[in-house]
Amino acid sequence: MTGIPCALMRGGTSKGAMLLASDLPADPEARDDLLLRIMGSPDPREIDGLGGAHPLTSKVGVVSLSARPDADIDYLFLQVVPDQPIVSTSQTCGNILAATAPFALERGLLPIMDGATTVRVHMVNTGAVAALTVRTPGGEVTYEGDAEISGVPGSAAPVEVALDPPSGALLPTGHVVDEVAGVAATLVDAGMASVVVRAADLGIVGDESPAELEANEALVAKVAQIRAEAFPLMGIAGTPETTTTPKIVLVSAPAEGGAIRTRSFIPYRVHEAIGVVGAASVAAAVRLPGSVAHELAVQPEPGAPLRVEHPTGFFDLHVDLADGDELAVGPARVVRTARMIMDGFVHPRPPAPPASAPA
Predict the structure, then answer these.
(1) What keyword terms does UniProt attach to this protein (predicted)?
(2) For 145-174, what is each residue's pLDDT tens digit?
(3) What is the pTM of this model?
């Protein structure tokens, strides 16, 4: 099979394949089959493809020029499940989002300014729009800089991300606290449908490592039960087996000077950090009086970033309640980094032969 133009990029604390929509089949079923073969799924090691054997490194971003008047490019995120033949579009990814603007500029989709270039990105999965500002000295994208983010070694050029406020309901049920599977929970969606629960209510401290949490069979089963019961409450289409939202976020009091400590199931593995829009949803819960996160949190000083602690460090962002509305939030502002790792052609695994007709 002829190779397909593809870039392997890190965006924030995630890594994935970046492709132009024009280089993929228009039919979603054919596209997803191709992406499974590109990433090497289903196989826990993804040994025969680009995937990294973990949800954080088995991601795909598809980019094209946008027809929307308020956006420059469209960004479709696809989560490829490593060990199952599943390609999900049920969520977006704010980390891979950070790679979309430099990728679009590298591919020549948009003009590059001298110094910095701002790209407005329509996130197809959710309909939201974000403005990304990329460093472009001399009219060229640079990945070198002094911005550091937890979960990524070294430093890189900053990618400033301004997320427009969510257009849907911040609280899908209309309640600050619901009871889900016998546990008090705040069901919140500030860009990522999330169920926020107290770690202590599930019998853990909240400082456990992802490996410890994943090995706790009783905890994993309870998280799955909470997630299944949250589906109809949050109006999410699909089933828990085929849809990667909502995320279940276990929260506890901060331990490293932040606002809140988190452990996030995404949905079956535990995030080594936290996603961008996932952090925005947690931050919104922190801001909401009466939520399960608000009562545990240490609120930042006015004007200071809200620091979300996670297993490998912290995530700083600015999220505030909308003026005059305690059930809405304003724009979220974060700094991410991105880097081009490889640019060339990917050669997907050959398609499976058709099943033999019965004799």
Answers:
(1) Isomerase
(2) 999 999 899 999 999 999 887 778 899 999
(3) 0.79
